[in-house]
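This part of the workshop introduces the protein records we will be handling. To make this concrete, we reproduce a full record directly below:
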Amino acid sequence: FYGISAFVLVLLLSVISVSDLLKREPAVMRQKLSLMGIGPFTTAGSRILGVSVLLSVISVLAAAAAAWTGMISIGLNTILTGFLVCLGAASFSVCLFQTAGSRIGGIFLQFFLVTAFHFLSGGFLPEVFLPESIQRAAPFLPTHILMEGVKMAVTSAFSIAVFCKLAAVAAVCFLLSLWVEVGRR
């Protein structure tokens, strides 16, 4: 439990290291990109894809170490779920940075919101020890869904519901990032 929780927390907070790539472009740069035919859809998508690659590298290294020690076995379900976890985490992180509007604002929002969500979703303290109202809200938090995804990848117990939740986190956060990006133009 704590290994999965720590992995999700490290995955989400590692985005802070590439925060310079997620900062808002100056108006002149957005105008030049627009003239070249690069709109908000491509901009938001490329940010998410770039962060997703970083998170995938971290995940592959962690999965390889866990497989080497015999803790997990890697199969197609593990790879697909791991990719979707990375995509969801990247979409969530990019959404937070885009919402903040500045690099330092994104760093603060990423750190504080991820930490708060992680606590509320039972990442630091098992969910059973949290108040009942928080227990009912936890399954809807992105960090809880990401932890379910990592748990599914580690145990190789495929669940279509968790897979759909991961896809929904990635899609909703992408659409929110796109909405913020369009609003800036």
Notes: The CA atoms of residues 30 and 36 lie 10 Å apart. Residues 40-68 form the longest helix (29 residues). The chain has a mean pLDDT of 85.
